[in-house]
Amino acid sequence: MNNFVRLLPTTIDFIVHRSFSITAPLYDLQKVSRVHVVDNSKLALDGNVYKRMPRIIHCYKRNDNLTRTRLTAGLGDKVLLAIKGQMKKAIIVGCKQRVRKPNVPQFDSNNVVLIDDDGNPVGTRILAPIPAFFRTRGDLAKIAAIATAFV
Question: How confident is the model at residue 21 (pLDDT cuts 50, 70, 90)?
Fold first, then answer.
């Protein structure tokens, strides 16, 4: 019994003075996040039923709040996908969020739309609703033009 009492204070000290780090919940997507491609391009339709889901392998936006090399991307940001063994650029049009942000729609899945090198969408129609603020942003106007529903 005395041995147990001697160990108890050191255990409490360890819990009070944490020697491990706790990461804050992410608001956006990061590398290796799985996504759904929601346009009607041939690669998107084949990639969603391929043996591996499309994954983000690079985010083109650096978040200044996070240190080191972690990159995150949110709604309207450009990412690089690995889909069917190919690397393709995409724009995030839907993002699950652990913590709700004000005036930003919350989605059930992480959705992206494939684009080419010039920023034009590869497909001719977007099959999922996209945020309404895409209409006002000039660089995303082409994606808003082929959308069928807005949130």
Answer: very low
Q: Which tokens belong to 125?
A: 């129609």
pLDDT at 38: 93
- E-only strand ranges, 16-76: 29-30, 36-37, 55-59, 72-73
Token code pair at residue 87: 């690397």
Question: C-alpha 104: how far from its chain's center?
Answer: 14
Q: Distance between CA 72 and CA 98 in Å, rounded?
A: 14
Rounded CA gap, 123 and 114, in Å? 7
Tokens of 45: 């339709």
Classify each residue of 4-29 as buried b or exposed e, where b means 16 or more C-beta atoms within 10 Å of its C-beta.
Answer: eeeeeeeeeeeeeeeeeeeeeebbbb
What domains are there in the chain, each with its CATH number?
24-145 (2.40.150.20)
Gap between the Cα atoms of 8 and 39, Å rounded: 58
